[in-house]
């Protein structure tokens, strides 16, 4: 009888343990860690993990559930931990993940394959949460716990060194400890370039070349941009804006715009720092992350694979950056400080009431006659002020006939002739939204003047390009000799002399052409021609021998 009762007691204990383990499995599967398709998210701070009673390798959730079940059944926690092989104390587990300086896998780090220009997404789960880069093969993986993709990759491929792309901490997997080694600082600088205010102030004085890992030399700030697919209109715009010193200095220090949460502002700042960084692993930069932000914010108005106009893109970019950076009290930003000027606009349009009277009189064949349309009463004059970020210049129409040699004549026009549009006397006829005669006069010059030549005209059938060459000076453009300017205040002097710093040109047919840009390097006053990845030094005389489309002039101080 005793043996039978003992067998019954043993059977009841076994059935109780089975039920208990079933409850453990149900709770652990409900937590989502057992499902490999669920995005895995780690906590990077080991101290927080241990305070919550979790282990860093991802098993801690299951262990905590086990302890809850054990407490419900009135069993001892240590016995339950021993069943799953987790009898180590909290202190021993802490010591297991202490940072180490003697990692034996540092020699496997391959800097040749590291590329941090692309979006920080896991290559397996496509999640952007808690992403690590494998420093051996360069691929991105999520998490570092036992069920994570980075942990699995470390076991399958034998790659053991990973960097967290957000915190910049380096870990050894599958062991899980943090690696403390100053030899990894160059990777951190490439991942997140940083500048001090003293370094920013010395950039224009630096004449030193930098060397990439492949042995090629490059100039910081004069690196090529990768054309992902028909994105040359973005590349020339970025290269031009990089020459605007206050704008560049503002975005090189992230603290200046840390209050702004716009992804476009953050990606523009990151791209700016990568272009001017002197410790890059390669001599070119890919604007992939910036283009993704542009596509998202512009709602795919500008996107990869579709050619767009640099004038439209630059106008949209400057206005969007201003809207995100401006303060609530004052409608001001670094964009307006650099590029904003003011115009006085005189608009002369037919008086609407008198025009309607004329039409009624004509319709009714009335003998009543209205005064001649040239009198002042027929014209409504309106004067207003207008702020601008760039000025559009009209080119004279090209000739329709060929010369004696049966070749099309390419006309040339001085820049000063087309600048007369803003002298306050020249009349510009407009049709939309209503027929009117416009006169423009500059009342305040910006620190950086952006001019764009209106080369393209669209009609119902095709886009027509005006090939007129504009003759312009590279240095000492004196505006006061050609357009009337307001008198400066008592303590100020008139600054009306400008130097060219960037010139965007268009080559080829309207629908099939491409863009390139000439930019000046201030440290040596040399000119460079840039077309995507191609960067070469050129002569100042060559800058003026092209079909200029957008120009940026810097005011002489």
UniProtKB/TrEMBL annotation:
Predominant location category: nucleus
MF terms in GO: cysteine-type deubiquitinase activity; zinc ion binding
Biased composition (Acidic residues): 73-83
Keywords on record: Metal-binding, mRNA processing, mRNA splicing, Nucleus, Spliceosome, Zinc, Zinc-finger
Compartments, as annotated in UniProt: Nucleus
Domain USP: 223-556
Keyword DNA-binding: no
Example GO BP: spliceosomal complex assembly
Zinc-finger listed as a keyword: yes
Record domain UBP-type: where: 101-198
Gene Ontology CC: spliceosomal complex
Pfam families reported for this sequence: UCH, zf-UBP
Ranges where the record places region Disordered: 1-96
Family note: Belongs to the peptidase C19 family.
Protein name in the entry: Ubiquitin C-terminal hydrolases superfamily protein
């Amino acid at each position: 009888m005793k043996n039978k009762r003992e067998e019954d007691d043993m059977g009841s204990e076994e059935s109780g343990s089975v039920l208990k383990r079933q409850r453990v499995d149900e709770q652990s599967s409900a937590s989502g860690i057992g499902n490999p398709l669920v995005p895995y998210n780690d906590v990077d701070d080991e101290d927080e993990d241990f305070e919550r009673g979790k282990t860093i390798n991802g098993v801690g959730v299951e262990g905590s559930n086990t302890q809850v079940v054990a407490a419900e059944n009135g069993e001892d926690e240590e016995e339950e931990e021993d069943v799953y092989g987790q009898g180590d104390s909290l202190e021993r587990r802490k010591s297991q993940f202490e940072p180490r300086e003697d990692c034996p896998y540092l020699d496997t780090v391959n800097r040749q394959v590291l590329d941090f220009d692309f979006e920080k997404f896991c290559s397996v789960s496509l999640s952007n949460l808690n992403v690590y880069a494998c420093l051996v093969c360069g691929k991105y993986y999520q998490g570092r716990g036992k069920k994570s993709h980075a942990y699995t990759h470390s076991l399958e491929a034998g790659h053991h060194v990973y960097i967290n792309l957000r915190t910049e901490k380096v870990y050894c997997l599958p062991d899980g400890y943090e690696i403390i080694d100053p030899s990894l600082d160059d990777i951190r600088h490439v991942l997140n370039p940083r500048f001090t205010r003293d370094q920013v102030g010395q950039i224009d004085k630096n004449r030193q070349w930098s060397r990439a890992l492949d042995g090629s030399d490059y100039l910081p700030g004069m690196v090529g941009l990768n054309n992902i697919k028909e994105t040359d209109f973005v590349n020339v715009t970025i290269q031009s804006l990089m020459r605007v010193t206050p704008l560049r200095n503002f975005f090189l220090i992230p603290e200046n715009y840390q209050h702004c949460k716009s992804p476009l502002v953050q990606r523009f700042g990151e791209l700016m720092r990568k272009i001017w960084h002197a410790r890059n692993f390669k001599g070119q930069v890919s604007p992939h992350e910036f283009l993704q932000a542009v596509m998202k914010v512009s709602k795919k108005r500008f996107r990869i694979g579709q050619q767009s106009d640099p004038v439209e893109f630059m106008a949209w970019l400057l206005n969007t950056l201003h809207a995100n950076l401006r303060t609530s009290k004052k409608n001001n930003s670094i964009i307006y400080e650099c590029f904003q000027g003011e115009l006085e606009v005189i608009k002369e349009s037919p008086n609407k009431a008198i025009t309607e009277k004329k039409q009624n009189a004509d319709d009714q064949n009335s003998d009543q006659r209205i005064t001649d349309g040239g009198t002042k009463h027929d014209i409504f004059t309106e004067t207003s002020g207008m702020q601008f970020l760039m000025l559009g210049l009209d080119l004279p129409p090209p000739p329709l006939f060929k010369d004696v040699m049966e070749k099309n004549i390419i006309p040339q026009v001085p820049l000063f002739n087309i600048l007369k549009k803003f002298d306050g006397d020249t009349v510009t006829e407009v049709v939309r939204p209503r027929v009117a005669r416009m006169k423009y006069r500059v009342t305040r010059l910006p620190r950086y003047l952006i001019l764009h030549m209106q080369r393209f005209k669209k009609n119902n059938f095709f886009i027509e390009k005006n090939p007129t060459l504009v003759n312009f000076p590279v240095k000492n453009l004196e505006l006061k000799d050609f357009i009337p300017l307001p008198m400066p205040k008592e303590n100020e002097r008139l600054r009306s002399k400008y130097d060219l710093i960037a010139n965007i040109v268009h080559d080829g047919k309207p629908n099939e052409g491409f863009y390139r840009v000439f930019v000046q390097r201030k440290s040596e006053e040399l000119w460079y021609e840039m077309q995507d990845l191609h960067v070469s030094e050129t002569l100042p005389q060559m800058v003026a021998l092209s079909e200029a489309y957008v120009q940026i002039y810097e005011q002489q101080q």
